[in-house]
Write a structure and sequence with these properties.
By secondary structure, the chain is of the alpha+beta class. Helix content is 55%, strand content 16%. The strands form 4 sheets. Strands 1-2-5-4-3 form a 5-stranded mixed sheet. It has a two-stranded antiparallel ribbon with strand order 6-7. Strands 8-9 form a two-stranded antiparallel ribbon.
């Protein structure tokens, strides 16, 4: 029998349906962990009808909020990122790259729309309104360490596209593949089936070239290898092997001046958070994010 992940992939691709309520319940947990709950429920709603109704409502709520944010930022230099995917899904937040010169104005405009500032960090401002979270980034980062230049992404890979009847600004599909790989490897240390779908649908030579230009080529290689393991029945989410992570970080430190310059910030990040030990333990033991 194929893995639960491959069965979920079959559902998303329209090639498989749960055989009974028991299997649907097991696959539901896998779908949630891989951020594919919405496309799963659209096939399996006969078994999970109330869940399907709630998730569709959440999706419409996310769309309304994302479009309102896009309208609020009109005229500023920004781009939604980690946003476009080859399947519709409900994200936990809205991630936005913003030109450093426009961050203050972006924050001001969102506050005028009822958002409140939750966290201000060196490369991120997090705002929230009635449960909807917006993260404004100047650079993609983790623990105050920059693993990719946000300015380069905005300069070279931002574009306008249609989103549910409106025009928003995001990054190109090929750049989304690269951002997906870098985020999975350098920040989360986990690969989701959604990440693999993004790679399989939109990856290619152009995405690899972009990864090379942005200094995250190793993350693409790790994503490729991990997604191959998924096709060989590895269950997703897949934890990236510590040796692969160490090599990727070491190469980053040797070749990326921005990563190297910001790496000492991780000490400040840990020392400034009394709960840092709990966070580290959680990151080492979690199965998804």
């Amino acid at each position: 029998m194929s893995s639960f992940t491959l069965r979920l992939l079959g559902i998303v691709e329209g090639l498989y349906r749960p055989r009974d309520a028991g299997e649907a319940a097991k696959l539901a947990a896998v779908a949630k962990a891989n951020k594919l709950y919405l496309p799963f429920l659209r096939v399996s709603k006969d078994y999970l009808y109330s869940e399907s109704v709630c998730e569709e409502r959440r999706y419409r709520w996310f769309i309304r909020n994302a479009l309102e944010v896009a309208e609020s930022l009109r005229g500023l230099r920004y781009a939604f990122y980690k946003f476009r995917r080859p399947v519709e899904h409900v994200s936990v937040d809205l991630d936005i790259l913003v030109d450093p010169r426009h961050v203050s104005e972006a924050v001001s405009r969102l506050i005028n729309k009822g958002f409140e500032i939750v966290v201000v960090e060196p490369y991120t401002v997090t705002l929230r309104r009635r449960g909807f979270i917006v993260d404004l980034y100047t650079h993609p980062s983790f623990a105050w360490v920059v693993y990719m230049s946000g300015e380069e992404v905005l300069r070279d890979y931002a574009e306008e596209f249609e989103y549910h009847g409106s025009i928003v600004t995001g990054i190109t599909r090929e750049a989304e593949v690269v951002v997906t790989a870098a985020h999975a490897v350098y920040k989360e240390h986990l690969v989701l089936l959604l990440d693999c779908l993004t790679f399989w649908k939109w990856g290619g030579r152009k995405a690899l070239d972009i990864a090379n230009e942005l200094g995250v080529y190793d993350s693409m290689k790790i994503l490729l290898s991990t997604c191959r393991d998924v096709l060989r029945s590895a269950e997703a989410p897949v934890k990236i092997h510590p040796v692969s992570l160490f090599k990727a970080y070491l190469k980053k430190a040797l070749e990326d001046p921005l990563f190297r310059a910001t790496s000492p910030n991780i000490i400040r990040y840990i020392m400034g958070r009394p709960e840092s030990g709990r966070i580290v333990l959680w990151r080492l033991t979690r199965k998804s994010y």
